[in-house]
Amino acid sequence: GMSNMALPILYELLNSQPDVLAERVYAPWPDMEAII
């Protein structure tokens, strides 16, 4: 999930622009990064 409420607001503001496409991505925890 998103722990900071500014992120969904920023996501919505960016995607409301006709020439902008924002996507949400999540990085794995460092210990899982090595496994992936």
Q: Which features characterize this protein?
A:
0% strand, mainly alpha, 36 residues, single chain, elongated, Radical SAM domain-containing protein, Radical_SAM_N2
Give the arrangement of secondary structure elements:
Elements lengths: L5 H10 L14 H6 L1
**Distance N terminus to C terminus?**
20 Å
Percent helix, as a range, is 40-55%
How much of the residues is beta strand, in percent?
Answer: under 5%
Number of helices: 2
Shape: elongated
The domain count comes to: 1
Oligomer: single chain
SSE order, one letter for each helix or strand: HH
Overall average pLDDT? 88
Outline the biggest β-sheet: none
By helix and strand content, what is the structural category?
A: mainly alpha
Rounded Rg: 13 Å
Number of strands: 0
